[in-house]
Amino acid sequence: MAQDGFGFTLPNRVHTTLGDSVTLEASYSTNYAVISVTWSKVHESEKSSDKRTTVFSYVPLANLKKPYGDYKGRAQLVGLASLRIDPTRLGDEGTYSLSIMTDKLGNEEKFVHLDLFVPPKLEVGPFNPYVTTFGTTVTLTCRVRKARPSVSSLHWEKDGGRIETSGLSGKYSGGNTEKP
């Protein structure tokens, strides 16, 4: 515990995947009475001071726990101060603040950034299965959409093994009549 009678821990960053649950782990210890525990989402702005939206508040003396807005039905307090969001949505990514108010020290505040990974949506074509005649050139396409972060590389596989292509053309020429 810090010398002022208040100890507070919160990670800098937390990572999760869209649709999964996430817990923003937080803990504190104090000799003072806790008046409130409040989680807010910080909407960063270059033109003015940052705007905040209350996500969840807890008033221990009244045993009042309340999620707000888009977090109703998805947010809950875990332990003394951790925030659980289930399931995560696209708009959940960003910076969150945790503010703990005590009767002697006023507000203590820390921040955590939630990174949200979005699995890619793949469209492979022309269709599956693709039937062709031996000796005919076939073009298969793959379209990657909605990935976050962006996909930086991808590869084709055949029978569970990676297909090595030649040059930038992406041509595969390792087949035969038994295993095209």
Mean pLDDT: 85
- Number of helical elements: 0
Strand order of the largest sheet: 2-11-10-5-6-7
What is the oligomeric state here?
A: single chain
Description:
With 180 residues, the protein is mainly β. Helices cover 0% and strands 46% of the residues. It is built from no helices and 15 strands. The strands form 5 sheets. It has a 6-stranded mixed sheet, with no helix packed on it. It has a 3-stranded antiparallel sheet with strand order 3-9-8, with no helix packed on it. It has a two-stranded antiparallel ribbon with strand order 1-4. It is elongated, with a radius of gyration of 25 Å. The termini are far apart. The relative contact order is 0.18. The mean pLDDT is 85.
Give short descriptive properties of this protein:
0% helix, 180 residues, three-stranded antiparallel sheet, 15 strands, elongated, mainly beta
Element layout with pairings:
Blueprint: E1 6-9, E2 13-17, E3 22-24, E4 27-30, E5 34-43, E6 51-59, E7 64-67, E8 75-78, E9 82-85, E10 94-102, E11 106-117, E12 121-125, E13 141-145, E14 157-158, E15 161-162
Parallel strand pairs: 2-11
Antiparallel strand pairs: 1-4, 3-9, 5-6, 5-10, 6-7, 8-9, 10-11, 12-13, 14-15
Summarize the structure.
The protein has 180 residues and is mainly β.
